[in-house]
From TrEMBL:
Designated name of the protein: WYL domain-containing protein
Pfam families membership: HTH_PafC, WYL
InterPro entries: CBASS_pafABC_assoc_protein (IPR051534), PafC-like (IPR028349), PafC_HTH (IPR043839), WYL_dom (IPR026881)
Domain of life: Bacteria
Domain PafC HTH residue range list: 8-121
Length: 324
């Protein structure tokens, strides 16, 4: 059945409150926090822009310019400060400073830099005051292109080295770039897989005694060591699978998530999804409930219980707000 409006509203209010407290997050970061797909979050944001909210003194408005140009989400309201304004001279000075930083940035940071540089160049050249901004952006784009080619070559070499380590059962160490800092990792490589986002290394961490996965493009200073000790490495537990038949309107789940396509025709699709996280699966089933044709009865009952729980929480929220 379609998602109940109160459930959807409760989720959107929760997202709005979280974004208000955590401005500048990307769609992917919001999706990870709430256990939803990027496509689902974008749809919720569009609803947010249509319905607004009723939070006292915290009424919001989505900054669509930032959302569409930079992919970050910021809510603007009566209590939210406006974005700073720059003069063309200030923008030109910042652009020169960005170019000086360019050689020291990672690939992902380069992408952000180019986006910021294009905006600053537009401002720097405003009213025809200076053409230096455009020249600086060209330099940055050329340097970024060279950096991207070098990064691809480095990734290819890392894959070759890791394959050798896997075949020869050798340990490896590397610096891994995390969200806020880099960390030294010492692991036994087990396998490589290529996804749309790039190469992923599956490895056994002997210190933490657990399976770990690492993005190859975030590795630095990769060192192949000696043959690793003969240890009993438990097989990584395979997830159970959920087989669904859905209408063609929900085909996007086969594109957004790791899945196995079993059959497809003009009206229906049958696929299997790995159950890595049961709460995430429940949320997904609620979201596509209108397009589910066949689903195991056990899971449909759990979806019903999940939706009922959400309704009860929403009623409690309404009661608390009415008493405030």
């Amino acid at each position: 059945m379609p998602e109940e409006a109160p459930v959807q509203v409760a989720r959107i209010l929760a997202i709005a409150s979280w974004i208000m407290d955590n401005p500048g997050q990307s769609v992917r970061q919001i999706a990870q926090h709430f256990g939803r797909s990027s496509r689902q979050v974008r749809r919720d944001l569009e609803y947010m822009g249509q319905i607004g909210d009723s939070m006292i003194d915290r009424s919001y408005g989505l900054d669509w310019d930032l959302y569409e140009t930079e992919g970050v989400v910021v809510l603007r309201g009566s209590q939210t400060p406006s974005l700073p304004k720059l003069t063309p001279a200030e923008a030109a000075a910042l652009l020169v400073a960005l170019r000086a930083l360019a050689p020291y940035l990672s690939e992902s940071e380069h992408e952000v830099l180019l986006s910021a540089a294009a905006k600053l160049a537009s401002r720097a050249g405003h009213e025809g005051e200076d053409t230096r901004g455009g020249r600086e952006v060209i330099h940055l784009e050329q340097e970024s292109s060279n950096s991207s080619e070098l990064q691809e070559e480095m990734n290819a070499q890392r894959v070759i080295n890791l394959r050798y380590a896997i075949d020869e059962k050798r340990e490896v160490t590397f610096e891994y770039l995390g969200v806020d800092d880099s960390y030294t990792r010492y692991v036994y490589p087990r396998g490589l897989k290529h996804l749309s986002t790039g190469w992923i290394l599956d490895a056994w961490d002997p210190i933490r005694e657990t399976h770990r996965s690492y993005r190859v493009d975030r590795m630095n200073n990769l060192v192949i060591g000696e043959k690793h000790a003969r240890v009993s490495i438990p097989s990584e537990p395979a997830p159970s699978m959920l087989t669904l038949t859905i209408s063609s309107n929900a085909r996007w789940i086969c594109e957004d998530f790791e899945s196995t396509l079993i059959s497809e025709d003009a009206q229906a699709i049958t696929c299997s999804l790995p159950i890595w996280n049961e709460k995430w699966i429940l949320a997904l089933l609620c979201d596509i409930s209108a397009d589910i044709i066949e689903c195991p009865s056990e899971w449909m009952q759990r979806v019903s219980d999940y939706a009922q729980s959400a309704m009860e929480i929403w009623e409690e929220v309404k009661m608390i707000r009415s008493e405030a």
